[in-house]
């Protein structure tokens, strides 16, 4: 893209190593290899639950769609409530131990959930409680996971390492739902959730064996003092808070429109769930490509690329309600899959390289909070707004507002100056 003053707005250099060589070199490193394979298995389990849990709730006599929302909402709410606590803890004690404890708790929560379902003893209340425990434990895992990466790879390998972790997650995004469908059909939703519990034990086993480089720790003041210190790291950097603002707009407007209006339009105008599956697969394939691009490409103007990629990603909402063939929609969604994967890999790389090691988990917790807090509100209001304005107008509005925020942050000097290459 053309810039001013003879400089390019965005430049990139191809890593001289081929993608396969970068992947092989990193995976041969013992500590990163353990982290990668443990998280690859765990990500697969996460995708199983996304499909299995609604069926698990509906298998309870008398349960309905409202109960599905209650159980899924309990996980998200618990995660949002505890994520700042998780960030403080992960900056105080070894992140490997924080993640290990989270895996053990989540394995127990899912194991009990599976047992109750398989023995027909589950109730909606019991699932709400167990999934609240699950969400609270995940709130400790997410911030710790970001901060652990620089402790297992060299500085120059952080971006390809983050890209590989995203690649494994995106592969799970494609394969997990298929496996979940087969498991639910074959052994029931309880069996699928039991498999998820086992994946956390696999992740825990890899973490036990890891020997990461000791990382810088928080100073160990009071919880409030440490939390305030994390917020200062966010507020004092003129590239962090604008990007968090853009992420909030994306999660509050675009994703609710995408996941509510997209399936609705597929049902009414594209012939049903099969078309939505094709569109979702298109996005998944694009995400894989985006992870491969992030694995190989070195970006110069990181902040500009994050803002531009997220602005393009905001088009997801309006794309899925365009009156064009399903395959064309899937192709366009594949493009947004590339930009989403590239955007978030560069963002996590920037946090690893530009935030002090002892504060990375706290900053990551504010990142997750910015995304989690407004998204449930978006899900609540998107339906009534669509009924008032119409599906296509609502999707277009969501895209335009969120994209405007993303373009606006590019004008912030701190974002324009952000470089991690």
Count every beta strand, where a strand is a DSSP E run of 2 or more residues.
Answer: 2
Query: How does the overall form come out from the CA principal axes?
Result: globular
- What is the topology, as strand order, of the major beta sheet? 1-2
SSE string: EHHHHHHHHHEHHHHHH
- Determine Rg (CA atoms, Å): 21 Å
Which percent range fits the helix content? over 70%
Tell me the structural class: mainly alpha
Q: Runs with pLDDT <50, length 5+?
A: 1-17
Count the DSSP helices.
15
Distance linking N and C termini: 18 Å
* Strand fraction: under 5%
For the largest beta-sheet, the strand count, sense and barrel status come to: 2 strands, antiparallel
Query: Average pLDDT across residues?
Result: 87
Tell me about this structure.
This protein is an all-alpha fold. It has 15 helices and 2 strands. The chain has helices at residues 19-27, 30-58, 65-92, 95-118, 124-148, 158-209, 223-235, 240-269, 273-296, 302-313, 316-319, 326-354, 360-389, 391-410, 413-417, and strands at 12-14, 297-299. A two-stranded antiparallel ribbon has the order 1-2. Residues 1-17 have low confidence and may be disordered.
């Amino acid at each position: 893209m053309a810039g001013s003053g003879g400089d390019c707005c965005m430049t990139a250099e191809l890593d001289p190593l081929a993608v396969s060589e970068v992947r092989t070199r990193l995976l041969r490193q013992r500590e990163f290899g353990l982290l990668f394979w443990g998280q690859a298995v765990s990500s697969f389990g996460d995708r199983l639950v996304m499909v299995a849990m609604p069926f698990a709730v509906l298998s309870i006599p008398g349960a309905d769609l409202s109960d599905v929302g209650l159980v899924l909402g309990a996980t998200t709410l618990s995660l949002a409530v505890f994520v700042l606590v998780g960030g403080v803890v992960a900056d105080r004690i070894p992140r490997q131990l924080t993640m290990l404890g989270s895996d053990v708790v989540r394995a127990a929560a899912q194991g009990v959930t599976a047992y109750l379902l398989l023995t027909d003893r589950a109730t909606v209340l019991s699932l709400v409680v167990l999934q609240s425990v699950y969400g609270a434990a995940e709130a400790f895992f997410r911030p710790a996971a970001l901060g652990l990466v620089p402790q297992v790879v060299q500085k120059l390998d952080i971006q390809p390492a983050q890209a590989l972790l995203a690649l494994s997650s995106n592969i799970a995004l494609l394969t997990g739902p298929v496996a979940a469908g087969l498991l639910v059909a074959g052994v029931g939703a309880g069996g699928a959730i039991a498999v998820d519990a086992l994946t956390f034990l696999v992740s825990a086993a890899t973490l036990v064996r890891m020997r990461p480089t000791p990382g810088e720790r928080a100073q160990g003041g009071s919880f409030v003092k440490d939390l305030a210190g994390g917020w200062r790291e966010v507020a004092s950097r003129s590239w962090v808070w604008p990007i968090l603002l853009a992420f909030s707009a994306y999660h509050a407007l675009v994703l609710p429109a995408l996941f509510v209006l997209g399936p609705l339009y597929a049902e009414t105008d594209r012939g049903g769930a099969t078309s939505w599956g094709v569109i979702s697969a298109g996005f998944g394939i694009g995400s894989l490509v985006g992870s491969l691009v992030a694995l190989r490409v070195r970006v110069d103007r990181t902040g500009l690329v994050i803002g531009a990629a997220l602005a393009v990603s905001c088009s997801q909402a309006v794309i899925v309600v365009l009156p064009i063939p399903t395959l064309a929609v899937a192709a366009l969604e594949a493009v947004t899959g590339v930009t989403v994967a590239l955007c978030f890999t560069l963002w996590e790389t920037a946090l690893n390289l530009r935030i002090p090691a002892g504060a990375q988990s706290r900053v990551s917790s504010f990142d997750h909070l910015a995304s989690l807090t407004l998204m449930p509100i978006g899900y609540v209001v998107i339906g009534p707004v669509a009924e008032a304005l119409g599906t296509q107008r609502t999707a277009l509005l969501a895209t335009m507002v969120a994209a405007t925020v993303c373009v606006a942050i590019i004008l912030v000097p701190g974002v324009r100056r952000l470089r991690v290459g």
